[in-house]
Amino acid sequence: MATPPDGKRARNKRANRAAILEAARRCFLEHGYDAVTIRDVIRLSGLAAGTFYNYFPDKESLFRALVEARLGDLQDRIHAARERARDIESFFYESYLATLQIVRTDPDFFELMFRNEPIVRSFYNDNFFGLIMQSLKLDLQDAIVRGVVPELDVDALTAISFGAGYELARLIAQDSRRRPEDVARTVTDLFLHGLTKVADRPKLIRLGSRLLGGAAR
Q1: Which residue of 28, 35, 51, 73 is surrounded by the most CB atoms within 10 Å?
Q2: What are the b/e assignments for 69-93, b being 16+ CB within 10 Å?
Q3: Is pTM, for the whole model, over 0.85?
Q4: Range 100-104, long-range pairs (CB < 8 A, 24+ positions)
Q5: Residues in CB range of 209: below 8 A, 6 or more apart
Q6: 134 pLDDT band (50/70/90 cuts)?
Q7: Confidence of residue 125 (pLDDT cuts 50, 70, 90)
Q8: Which domains are seen in the chain, by residue range?
């Protein structure tokens, strides 16, 4: 039976979009956002300029689409982990572990984000990162209602948790020797029990220094 024209057209559209996003990924990772031009992406994709503009009007929309497509999956997995949590330990450990496992499976993408950190940070309040923080805040509020997390300053806890997750993702992306399970356990113990509980673990000092260094930038 012949393939319906709309089915073939839809597949072609998906293939073209995927080719553009893959070319953009390679360009942004190698050269950085500021140095890349749309012409660079078009040339690497092998598509015509007119085809490119059918999907993206400019470089910013292209970069946003590249970041949001990957982070959407990350956000879904983290939210699911928090919803399953039955105590405060699993709330933090499972959400950090989900984050770090995804980073480990695709370190190049997250290295792309960190290489282009200024433009990524511009997304915090007006786009996807703002939504991620809002989702974390809502998950914390829900956990408090369910009795999983004690009543705390949700805004402060959101900022601390998000900042730690961001820097831990950087750590995992840049250091393949670190195991996501170990890092997630260390930061969870630090949150729940403080330094005195884990002070006999030498790796914690290096991790703490990295987190504080990231916060100071």
Answers
A1: 28
A2: ebbeebbebbbebbeebeebbbbbb
A3: no
A4: 100/168, 100/169, 100/172, 100/180, 100/183, 100/184, 101/180, 102/73, 102/74, 102/77, 103/169, 103/172, 103/173, 103/180, 104/172, 104/180
A5: none
A6: confident
A7: low
A8: 1-57 (1.10.10.60), 68-216 (1.10.357)
Percent of the residues in the chain that have a pLDDT greater than 90, as a whole number: 52
Start-to-end Cα distance in the chain: 60
Angle in degrees, CA 18, 170, 177, rounded to 5: 100
The residue whose two tokens read 């990924």 is 25
Mean pLDDT of 25-40: 92
Q: Are 66 and 24 in contact (CB under 8 A)?
A: yes
- Yes or no: say if 102 and 73 are a contact pair by the CB < 8 Å rule: yes
